[in-house]
Amino acid sequence: MADVIVIGSGPNGLAAAVTLARVGAQVTVLEAENEIGGGTRSLEPFGEGIIVDHCSGFHPMAVSSPALAELDRYGLEWAWPEIDAGHPLDDAPAALLHRSVDRTADGLGRDGDRWRLLFEGPSSSYDALRADLLGPVVHVPKHPLLLGRFGAPTVLPAALLAHLFRTERARALFLGTAAHAMRPLTEVVSSAIGMGILTAGHHDGWPVAVGGSQAVTGALARALVDLGGTIETGVRVTSMDQLPPADAIMLNLSPTAAVNLCAGRLPDATVRAYRRYAYGPAAYKVDFTIEQGVPWRDAELGRAGTVHLGGGPAEILANERAVARGRMPERPFVLLGQQYVADPTRSRGDVHPLYAYAHVPAGYTGDATEAITAQIERFAPGVRERIRDLRVTRPADFTAGNTNYVGGDILTGAKSPTALLFGPRPGRNPYGTGLHGVYLCSAAAPPGPGAHGMAGHHAAQLAIKDLGLG
C-alpha cells in the first residue's frame, strides 16, 4: 500500500486525497489552520442561522466536475437561482444570464443571434468538452474538432471578442464574466476564463452548495474518511524534514510556498520557474446583512444569484487595467453574491447575507468598504438603509488565513497568458515538480481556481501512474 501525504485541505488537496484513496493509497491530509477547506469554507459571522461563504461562492465548473463525482452520497446538494447572473447598467435594463442559451439570447435583443453563435454549440457539447476544458490547455485533446471550435475565440483579448456584440448590454454581460480572471481584458487569451465559465454555466447553471460552500469541503472530507484516509488540522508544515517517509507528497500550495517547503531539494529549473511565478490583484470583501433584500432598480436582479457591478464595457476595461497596474479605481468592479435566492437556508427570517468583493491592487492596504457600498447603492438606491451589519475581509486577512493567497490574490496566481497556457512550470508537466514523488496540486496548476478540485485530481492521476496504482 502506498503512503501519501497531502499538504493543504482546500478543494484541490481534498480532491487529490480522495482520488488517491480510491485506488487504495493510505492518505493523510495535513492542514495548517484549525479548519479545513481553504477558500471553500462558510461561516456565521453574524450569529447562528446566517451563512456566509468565505471565498468560493458559485460553482458552474464544479457541479459536474469528475473530481467531485458521487459526492451526493456524502451530503453534497446543489441549488440553482432563477437567474444565474445579472449585469446592471446605469441607463438601460440589466443584462441577464440564464442557464438557457436561448433565454439569455432572447433578452439581448439584436445581439441574441450572436450570443447563440458563440455559446450554443460549445454548451450543447460540454459533456464531451468537459475533460479538455478542465485540464491543461496544452495537451492532446480527446475531441480536437470540438475543442478547436471552442478554443478559437478564447485566444482573443476579451475586449476584442466583446466587439462581436453590438449593444452595451451584451458586451457588459460578457466582459463582466471575463473579469472573473482579474486580469487586463486587453491581453491575449483573456477571453478564455469567461468563455469557460459561460460555456459550463449554460450547460450546468451557476449553482450554490446548500448550506454554504463548506458543504463541498465536508463531502470531500467524509468521502476521504470513508475510504480510510485521515485529516489532521493545526499542523503547519514548513519543511520537508517535518514529514514522515511517504511514497508521494501532494502540495496544495502556491509555487512560492512549495519552493520554501522543499528548500534545497527542487531542481534549479523548477526553482527558477516557481520564483518567477507572478501573483495578481487582490480581493477586498465585505459581507453584509440586508433586511428585506436589495432594492435593485431593475427588480429582475433580485432573482439573480450573482450580480456583476462594473458598469458599461469601457468602465470594466479601464478598471481592470488600473487594478493590474496597482491603481485603485474610484468605482471598482464588484462581484456580488445573493446565494440565499437559491438557498434560503442561509438567511434568518427577513435578514439575508450579501457577499461582495471588489478587485483591488495586490497588497492593497486602504479601505474599500465605502467604494463597494457605493457601487451597490449605484444600482440599488436605498440599500444603505437596509444594511444591518457588515464584516470586512481585507487582502491581508485573506493572506493571513491562507498563505496561498499571496498579497490577497484569491486566485493563487495571476492568470496571465503564459500561466493560462502552460501553468507554473512552462514546458514541463504542470503537476510535476521535478522532485521524485512530489507533486503540485494547487489552483496554481491547470485548470486553475475554483471548487471543482480538478488540479488536485489531475496531480493525483499523475501520482497514481508514477506509483503504478492505476
Automatic annotation (TrEMBL):
Enumerate the InterPro entries for this protein: FAD/NAD-bd_sf (IPR036188)
Classify the source by domain of life. Answer: Bacteria
Gene3D superfamilies, per the entry: FAD/NAD(P)-binding domain
**Stated name of the protein:** NAD(P)/FAD-dependent oxidoreductase
